[in-house]
Design brief:
mainly alpha, two-stranded antiparallel sheet
Length: about 170
């Protein structure tokens, strides 16, 4: 398992390259926050009553990638990977037998599929699946990219705090 190389997005790129650059940066940031830790450390929860762990965040982001790219953009109607109707937050509920290697592999598969789904689309292309529960309108790829950057940035902030709690490591 190799952590993806993390490089700063271009400061002069066009819109699509900029969005994809920031999304890739944040994907790699989460992997970097998990690097060098064992499964026990990665399952360690933040503080009660929170159920956040680094392993849970990786599992959650696999679900998020799947939801927005497979189900919203491509209308694949795929079920949850780590959650179901009985446990809607199952992605955050990693058990003793759940490993980072497994979660990381699934997450990387979802990222690869997300790239495949997005590649032929333009930023204004609309998803074929789920629509906004607020407006009833479909999402375009630009919205999904922007939301994914926001989602990763928020959870990378959580990952910063979790990692510092586990072993004192800090950094961006």
């Amino acid at each position: 398992m190799t952590t993806p190389h993390r490089s700063e997005p271009s400061t002069v790129a066009g819109e699509r390259e900029m969005l994809e650059g920031w999304l890739e940066y944040h994907r790699a940031t989460l992997a970097t926050k998990c690097e060098g830790l064992n499964d026990t450390q990665l399952r360690q929860l933040s503080v009660a009553p929170s159920e956040l762990s680094l392993l849970g965040l990786v599992r959650h982001m696999a679900e998020v990638e799947r939801g927005w790219f497979r189900n919203t953009m491509a209308d694949e109607k795929t079920p949850g990977i780590f959650f179901d109707d009985a446990d809607q937050d199952g992605d955050f509920h990693a058990g003793e037998d759940d490993t980072y290697a497994e979660a990381y592999a699934v997450w990387q598969e979802e990222i690869a599929h997300a790239r495949e789904v997005a590649a032929p689309l333009g930023l204004d292309d609309l998803g074929a699946g789920r629509v906004s529960r607020h407006t009833g309108k479909p999402y375009n790829l630009r919205w999904v990219y922007t939301h994914m950057i926001e989602e990763y940035a928020r959870h990378n902030g959580h990952a910063d705090l979790l990692r510092e709690r586990i072993d004192g490591a800090t950094g961006d």
